[in-house]
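Thread amino acids onto this structure.
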């Protein structure tokens, strides 16, 4: 069913030499029925000129230009402009295998699935990639499976928006928010709407590990960045969804304890408590009365909250 239009959305900001490779890989896709929406987020390094050249040479490409507002705003602008039956995100410094969109489209259409995703490889700036044993078969995940993976943070596939093929209807009422790990929050909201997802074992996406990328900046993946993310997740989780609320609550309390352990000096500690204390006060009753959080875990958290030295001892014992 190559009549389905796929919208490929690419936010672009000072992507440098990586951009050419990314756009070449999209133009060369074996699945041809595409619209490629490039959003130049105020680049100052010639990235806009590269985008304009692709738009001149391939009518499937079109460019939106805006002042530098950040990746969330760029992706939202692309979503607002998209007309395709399906949405696919790619980052401007990564690239796709030639059959990426064909593989994902075939997988999505092979059954009653709400999303298709596939394996990816991390590539160094020199082009080196780890060897991987590929399994071209399909694995199925329920919406609850995806939610749990997204909350746990154990598998990056369920925390990023790139390399998924998703029907555009699921983005109704959803847009990226301006906070760290905005991918993960949007994935969480998407998975709450979805049923079954299919995972393809074939590698279709190559994630370029740039030393200057946003995800490598200090604090991006740290506890201080994760706290507002999980706090927002909790806000978006209905009271009746006790299972998800329990998972998010546990992550939030673990994040706080780790952050407290990492914080040095009285001024930093006071700043920490100014941020965290209102949340702890607001959620303490729910956490300690929640039926899906074990008595043992509650007892451990209560002890660690009252005895900061115990967290230090536990970190030393476990080498964290």
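Threaded sequence (320 positions):
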């Amino acid at each position: 069913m190559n009549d389905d239009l796929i919208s490929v959305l690419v936010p672009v900001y000072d992507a440098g030499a990586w951009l050419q490779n990314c756009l070449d890989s999209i133009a060369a896709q074996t699945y041809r029925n595409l619209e490629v929406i490039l959003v130049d987020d105020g680049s100052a390094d010639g990235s806009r000129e590269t985008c304009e050249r692709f738009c001149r040479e391939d009518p499937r490409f079109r460019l939106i230009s805006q002042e530098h507002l950040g990746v969330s705003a760029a992706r939202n602008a692309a979503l607002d402009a998209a007309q395709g039956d399906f949405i696919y995100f790619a980052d401007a410094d990564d690239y796709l295998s030639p059959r990426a969109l064909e593989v994902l489209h075939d997988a999505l259409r092979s059954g009653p699935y709400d999303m298709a995703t596939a394996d990816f490889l991390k590539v160094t700036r020199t082009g080196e990639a780890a060897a991987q044993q590929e399994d071209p078969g399909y694995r199925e995940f329920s919406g609850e499976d995806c939610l749990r993976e997204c909350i746990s943070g154990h598998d990056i596939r369920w925390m990023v928006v790139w390399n998924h093929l998703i029907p555009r209807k699921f983005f109704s009422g959803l847009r990226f928010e301006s906070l760290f790990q905005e991918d993960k929050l949007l994935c969480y909201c998407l998975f709450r709407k979805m049923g079954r997802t299919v995972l393809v074992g074939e590698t279709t996406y190559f994630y370029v590990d740039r030393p200057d990328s946003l995800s490598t900046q200090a604090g991006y993946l740290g506890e201080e960045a994760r706290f507002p993310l999980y706090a927002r997740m909790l806000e978006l989780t209905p009271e009746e969804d006790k299972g998800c609320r329990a998972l998010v609550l546990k992550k939030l309390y673990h994040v706080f304890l780790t952050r407290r352990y990492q914080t040095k000096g009285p001024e930093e500690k006071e700043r920490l408590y100014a941020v965290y204390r209102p949340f702890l006060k607001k959620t303490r009753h729910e956490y300690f009365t929640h039926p899906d959080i074990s008595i043992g875990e509650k007892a451990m958290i209560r002890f660690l909250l009252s005895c900061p030295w115990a967290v230090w001892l536990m970190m030393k014992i476990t080498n964290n």
